[in-house]
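Q&A log
Question type: sequence-to-structure
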Amino acid sequence: MSHPDELTQTFEASEEEFARTYAFEMTDGLRKRVTLVRSGRGLTVEITYVDGAVTDATSETFEADGPVRISITESGVYLAGCRDLLAGRVRLRRTRFF
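Response status: OK
Response body:
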């Protein structure tokens, strides 16, 4: 998996529970906070943007039946995980940037 930014940290999160928050400085005072929460096969990502007095937050939940690779860059978080479909005959691999 290639990244346009320089990696500052990469690790794999198994199905054990964990929660981590990462903060990023964007341009012109815009800040981004990414919170990752894993509980079993579920992984919830909450993204919060703050620009002065304005705050916008969104949340997405994914399912992964194995470890999730998490890569931290200077501008955000890459998540790469897999999910079995069709009774294990198809394996869907996804990489997302937050």
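Response note: The chain is about 0% helix and 70% strand.
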